[in-house]
Every structure is written in structure tokens, then in C-alpha cells.
Design brief:
transferase, single chain, transferase activity, membrane, Rossmann fold, alpha/beta
Length: 383
């Protein structure tokens, strides 16, 4: 783990304890998962890579698409980013990425191919569609309490950066220093690395707009883009940013528990200390960097969403953000928001965990996030 520590400048060495990389006696579960995961993953990436190359032959004009006023929903993980993202996605001005596009169709070529297949399937009664829906629920249904998603649901578009090693989620299977550095990109990334990632991301967005409509605005939701905010603001000078935050009492243990669910699948042993300490340091940076960058942007380009307010009055929060950005809410969008407002009253999270089992103590929360409690008027946790 010492190699990773060298990259995470300014973070205490104790924040990243030994993970056991290279340790003998890896669990059978981890070995089986890797044997099953890597062949499928590499095959999918090979197919995706071929599709991306075909785009330059079949749809070369995608490189001329203008990316206009994208909206980035960023912030501290587990702070309402998904909820806000799906509220905003109800506005027809936006286009956002679906999970199936990110995983299996990042190219224009693949999207047209799979759309044609779906059309043919619909003509014969959707047998493949029903089978896919069944498989989706079997594979993804267990995650509903943490992050409910389906192949057709809006999802985080940093998954589209997997081919260029720009998706932090890959750290679950490859604990690489370069992946950890993504969580401090604005601070630690080299100019060359930032240019490479932004060039790849711009091409990704251009492909998406080419397929879904060049008159649309991109709606992107990525908490993992929080440490990229300044880089994104420089690359897209007319972009808007909505930063989401929440009481650390809720957001910090919730995020640590969420990552542990994936880590236990791939690792097969207890790595709670590694993820807790790493994410405590990372989330401290997220809170600080989010507010610092928002403060540097003009008011017309940035807004803040506090989870406790969003959960109680979602339509009001969205309306205020639109006023700030100089946008109007059309009648259809207002009606959809009103319906979501009613549903929000009865929502109860299905994500349950015990902070004590994660080792997230009130003392540590106070020590690391005390300034957040004080700035936003949250009650400090008691031992």
C-alpha cells in the first residue's frame, strides 16, 4: 500500500493501512470471482473498443457535435445525488446515460445495433426483453436498498471512462495507485492526465449527443467527479454544477458500507479498516473541495443541494436551482416534479447498516468533519 501513499499527498499515511496486496493465501471466493469476472470483463471491453473504432468509420461527424451547457450533479456520495439526478432527468431538455449504454454500448455503432435488436424483439412479443428483465432483477435486485438501478435507468457516466482507466469504481478489483489518484484529480493529477481524461470524456459526450439529439443538454451525475470539478469547469466553460451534501452522520458510514458490499464480493475477507480509513480521508477532501470550487464559480453556474432539504421539498429545490441558472420549468416538467414531491413524503431508505460495526465512531466524525457540522448547523455526534 506504500505506493498508493506516495500518490495521495497531504493525506496522513495512517489513512491507508496495508491491504495485503501480493499476500499469499487469497481466499477461494476472490479467486473464483476473478476467474469469472476478468474473462467477461475483457471480452466486453474488446467488443466496446471495436464499436468505438467503428464510430470513426460509420459516424465520423460525431466529432463535430457541440457540447452545450452540460449540467454536472456532483457532491458527497450518499447525499441525494441519485435522487436529484432522476428528478432532473424528467425534464425533456436533458439527455442522460442509461446503464445499458455505459456497460454494453458506449459507441454509437453499438447503440444502433442494440436498438435494432430491441425493435425486432418487440415485434415478436419481447421474449428476449422479458428474459433480460428477469436476469436484471436476479443480478441487481439485491442492491435496491443501497442504490436501486436497472439497465434502462439513468446512471453515472464515469462508467463510460472504464476503457481509458478513468473510473474509480475499478479500484474494487484493481487497487491501483492511479485509480486512487482519481479521487484527488484536481489536486494531484498532472496536466497531461487531465487533458487525456477530458478528451476521452468529451468524445464520450459527443457520441451520446449524436445518438440522442444534438439539441439536448447533457445531464451527468457523478459524485466521483467532485474531485474533478475544476478540471471539468475548465474543459466546459458554460457548464453548470450542482453540489450535494448531507450530514456526515449519515453520508460517511453509508458510503463506507456501500463500498464494502462490493469489496466483500471481490475480496472475500474483511477489509473494513482499509476502506473506512481510505474513505474518511477521501470524503474529507470531497466536502472541502466541493465548497471551495463552488465558491470560485459565478452564481449562475453553481448551486448547492442539501439532502435534508431535498428529501423534504424536492420540487422547491429544483425550482430554485432553475431560477439560479436562468432556466424555465415547462408545464410538463412542473407536473412531473409535483408527482415526485408527493412520493417523497412516503419514502423510506432500504439501506441499513450499523456504524459501530464499520468502526465509524462519533469521536472520529467530530475530529474529521467537525467543521461541516459547525458550518451547516448539524448537531455534533455524541460518544
Amino acid at each position: 500500500m506504500s505506493v498508493i501513499k506516495q500518490y495521495l499527498r497531504g493525506i496522513p499515511a495512517s489513512a491507508f493501512p496495508d491491504y495485503g496486496i501480493g499476500r499469499r493465501g487469497a481466499s477461494l471466493q476472490r479467486l473464483l470471482v476473478i476467474v469469472l469476472f476478468w474473462p467477461v470483463f475483457l471480452l466486453v471491453q474488446l467488443i466496446n473498443g471495436a464499436g468505438l473504432l467503428l464510430d470513426y468509420v460509420l459516424f465520423p461527424d460525431f466529432r463535430r457535435v457541440t457540447v452545450r451547457e452540460p449540467l454536472f450533479v456532483v457532491g458527497v456520495p450518499r447525499s441525494g445525488t441519485t435522487f436529484l439526478h432522476r428528478l432532473l432527468a424528467l425534464d425533456q431538455r436533458f439527455t442522460t446515460t442509461a446503464l445499458w449504454e455505459l456497460l454494453f454500448a458506449p459507441s454509437i455503432t453499438q447503440r444502433y445495433f442494440w436498438t435494432a435488436i430491441a425493435s425486432l424483439d418487440a415485434r415478436i412479443g419481447k421474449p428476449a426483453g422479458r428474459l433480460l428483465l428477469w436476469l436484471e432483477r436476479r443480478l441487481l435486485g439485491g442492491l435496491d436498498g443501497v442504490h436501486k438501478t436497472g439497465l434502462r435507468d439513468p446512471e453515472e457516466d464515469y462508467l463510460g471512462l472504464i476503457p481509458v482507466w478513468g473510473c474509480f469504481l475499478m479500484v474494487l478489483v484493481v487497487p491501483s495507485p492511479s485509480l486512487w489518484r482519481l479521487t484527488f484529480l484536481d489536486r494531484d493529477g498532472s496536466p497531461a492526465e487531465k487533458r487525456r481524461l477530458m478528451a476521452a470524456y468529451r468524445r464520450f459526450v459527443q457520441r451520446h449527443l449524436y445518438f440522442h439529439g444534438q439539441d439536448k443538454q447533457l445531464l451527468s451525475k457523478n459524485p466521483s467527479f467532485t474531485p474533478w470539478m475544476q478540471t471539468l469547469a475548465d474543459a466546459f466553460p458554460d457548464a453548470r454544477f450542482i453540489g450535494c451534501l448531507r450530514n456526515p452522520d449519515a453520508s460517511v458510514p453509508s458510503q463506507i458500507n456501500s463500498i464494502l458490499i462490493g469489496a466483500r464480493l471481490f475480496e472475500g475477507r474483511d477489509t473494513t479498516t482499509y476502506w473506512r480509513d481510505g474513505f474518511m480521508a477521501m470524503l474529507d477532501y470531497y466536502y472541502r473541495h466541493l465548497l471551495e470550487v463552488l465558491d470560485t464559480l459565478p452564481e449562475s453556474r453553481q448551486g448547492l443541494s442539501v439532502m435534508e432539504v431535498l428529501a423534504d421539498r424536492p420540487a422547491e429545490v429544483v425550482a430554485q436551482l432553475y431560477v439560479r441558472f436562468g432556466w424555465t420549468l415547462d408545464l410538463a416538467f412542473r407536473e412531473r416534479l409535483a408527482e415526485q414531491d408527493r412520493k417523497a413524503k412516503g419514502y423510506r431508505s432500504g439501506h441499513h447498516y450499523d456504524p459501530q460495526s464499520l468502526g465509524v465512531s462519533p469521536e472520529e466524525l467530530n475530529a474529521v468533519f467537525g467543521w461541516v457540522y459547525d458550518r451547516f448547523g448539524y448537531s455534533r455526534p455524541e460518544a
